[in-house]
Amino acid sequence: MTDYNHPDYNHSLMCSYGNNYSYNEEELKELESENASIQNIYFPMRVFNSLKSDNVYTIKDLMSKSESELFRISGLGRKGVDSIKEEFNKINKAIDTDYYIGKKQTNRKDSMIIDKRSDESVYITINGWVYYIDDSTGEQIIQKWKEE
Predict the structure, then answer these.
(1) Tens-digit pLDDT profile for residues 25-62
(2) For the domain 1-104, what is the CATH superfamily, name and number?
(3) Cα angle at 38 between 37 and 44, to 5 degrees?
(4) What value, to the nearest 5°, has the Cα angle with vertex 51 and ends 97 and 79?
(5) Which one of 15, 76, 99, 102 is CB 3.0 to 4.6 Å from 66, fit for a cystine?
(6) CB 95 within 8 A of CB 88
(7) Is the pTM of this model over 0.70?
């Protein structure tokens, strides 16, 4: 396990002051796992340091936080939360991942999870079935598939 408090640990490996960077193939490979360190994501340094101060070290840690929980972290405001969403969107488009804040893990089969992605789309998981509802085009698009 990585010792994030070790003096030789490079906390600013991927951190940046802007989000205009593209990920190369090697970087994207590292980001395929939810257990990947958030240091591998191009977050502004303030965002990275704020997350670290709240013991958020991996993509999985970050996704377990709701948007309101992120706002309660010292140093994170609307701009910081938006930069997290922006980077997750970049990664999701570049590789086959489904990273977003507020993603909760569950093993219960008799549960229902509602995940609102935007004002126009929502994912609803009921007993292992995922329903995707999209109203962004004015026409309701509904898809259903079995969660694996």
Answers:
(1) 899 999 999 999 999 999 999 999 999 999 999 999 99
(2) 5' to 3' exonuclease, C-terminal subdomain (1.10.150.20)
(3) 155
(4) 80
(5) 102
(6) no
(7) no
